[in-house]
Amino acid sequence: MEESTSLKYQTRLLFQSAAERRGIPLSDRAIDELVEKVRYLSLTGKRRPSRFQMISSPGSFRPTNQLAALLAERLRQLMTVSDAEPLFNLPVLLVKTFSVFTVPIEQSDISGGCAIIGGMPMLFVSKMGDVDGLFRCAHQIAHVLALSNQADTASLDASQNELGRAKSPYEHFADNVALNLLVPTRGLGIALRQTRKLLRATGPLGDVELLHVARIFGVSFLAVCKRCEQAKLLPEGGALALNRFLKEKFGSAERRAEELDLPPRLSASFSIASILAASHEVRETRSLEPAIGRQKHVHKDRY
User: Fold this and answer.
1) Are residues 149 and 15 in the same domain?
2) Same domain, 115 and 148
3) Quick one: which of 162, 92, 169, 89 has its CA closest to 131?
4) 19-33, 74-88, 102-116, 118-132: which has the minimum mean pLDDT?
């Protein structure tokens, strides 16, 4: 009983401190939710030593694009997924490979966070069901990696901390880890080639094929555009410009996708039950080509 009370108190202090550092006005109720999720995991989660030391070492974190790409590649290797495979089951893979739990939360002030408490690394992701759910999860992986050689600690991101906004170098680094992890270079190339072939698209890269590719990898239109920009397939600034164009003309990229009658997005596996049971499940992989094949309706509209 005393141990449980002590854990709750220490966890509360960690999240309060994390919120204050980022200037996030978290209510007592919001902090209580985070504390309760930690307590639940400490009681039900299968504790195993973290394997993050296989990826990083103390002092190795300098926020460069090259390191972000290397970390993403290493993560995929350790999770034994190819560089052409979508990661809809990322939360389950994180448990099975690294003993890192992804916890769904219902918060309006934060987009996500991470913590290491009692030796247990965990990620917190808000609004997991929306377009950026997987991206938020992958973004937090970079943060928990940076914290992996510290004692009990926590980090939180404000709700406005989304892709495309002005950020600190470390936040941009976390974005780049997420982009490279979720949309690997080889997979992006295969997806674009096959999608353009199916659409019979010629000429410059356009919004229609990019919307299809975003669904293949389970990320936002802007995320795919950012990866294309990094790969020099779009000019510098092209990702934000194209995303802004769709927002101004159609209301948002997702509304444009609906207008094109693209099939619904696949859902990532974010339920606590599936995550806790990950050690006893056989991982279901999704190959890239079947994902492309699910794009039943093709369109040649280009803007």
Assistant:
1) yes
2) yes
3) 162
4) 118-132
Q: How many domains does the chain have?
A: 2
Taking a C-beta distance cutoff of 8 angstroms, is the pair 131, 265 a contact?
yes
Which residue, 123, 153, 182, sits at the end of a domain? 182
Count CB-CB contacts under 10 A for residue 210: 25
**What percentage of the chain exceeds 70 in pLDDT?**
79
Q: SS3 of 233, please?
A: coil
pLDDT at 3: 55
Task: Give, in order, the Cα–Cα distances in Å from 196 to each of 106, 202, 220, 231.
Answer: 38, 7, 19, 17
Asked whether the beta carbons of 199 and 299 are under 8 A apart, the reply is: yes
> Letter for the amino acid at 233?
L
pLDDT at residue 301, rounded to an integer: 42
Tokens of 53: 């030391």
Residue 295 predicted with pLDDT over 70 = no
Report how far residue 46's alpha carbon sits from residue 10's, in angstroms, rounded to the nearest whole number.
Answer: 21
Whether 234 and 242 have beta carbons less than 8 Å apart is answered as yes
Domain shared by 143 and 225, yes or no:
no
- Domain of residue 51 covers 2-182
